């Protein structure tokens, strides 16, 4: 690790505010399983080992199955996700790969997501996609490696 964000005063203050923003999403009506699948998929795309480790373990602790977690990267070629989860994963990919897709999130993807999620759920989903992408960048920049995360660790570190 290049720099421990959790031990720095400025980064620590930021992390607490970041965690409070994440808490809004966590307490929203967006299903917890969807939240973890979205966070995992964005983290895979961004190559964030710390966040992949965190969200795989948090999802497992919340009851997610190994089969579904193992298939997130290949969700399009899998039968284990609901139509709503598939819509969330498509929105996540397009919202994460902004530089790769010049129009950003397509109208088709947005419309599909809106058929599955009400206003509060879509708001939480959009906020979650933004938050996980920010978290991925923080961890990747400082080379925070995956492997040592334990469920609840983030909450305890910024609590």
Automatic annotation (TrEMBL):
Residues 16-94 form the Carboxymuconolactone decarboxylase-like domain. Transmembrane segments: none annotated. Pfam families: CMD. This is Alkylhydroperoxidase AhpD family core domain-containing protein. It comes from Actinokineospora diospyrosa. The lineage of its organism: Bacteria, Bacillati, Actinomycetota, Actinomycetes, Pseudonocardiales.
């Amino acid at each position: 690790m290049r720099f421990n964000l959790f031990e720095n005063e400025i980064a620590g203050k930021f992390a607490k505010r970041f965690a409070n923003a994440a808490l809004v999403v966590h307490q929203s009506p967006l299903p917890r399983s969807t939240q973890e699948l979205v966070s995992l998929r964005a983290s895979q795309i961004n190559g964030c080992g710390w966040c992949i480790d965190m969200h795989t373990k948090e999802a497992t602790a919340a009851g997610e199955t190994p089969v579904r977690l193992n298939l997130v990267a290949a969700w399009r070629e899998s039968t284990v996700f609901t139509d709503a989860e598939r819509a969330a994963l498509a929105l996540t990919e397009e919202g994460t790969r902004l530089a790769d897709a010049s129009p950003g999130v397509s109208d088709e993807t947005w419309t599909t997501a809106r058929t599955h999620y009400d206003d509060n759920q879509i708001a939480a989903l959009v906020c979650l996609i933004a938050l996980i992408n920010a978290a991925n960048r923080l961890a990747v920049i400082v080379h925070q490696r995956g492997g040592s995360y334990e469920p609840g660790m983030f909450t305890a570190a910024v609590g």
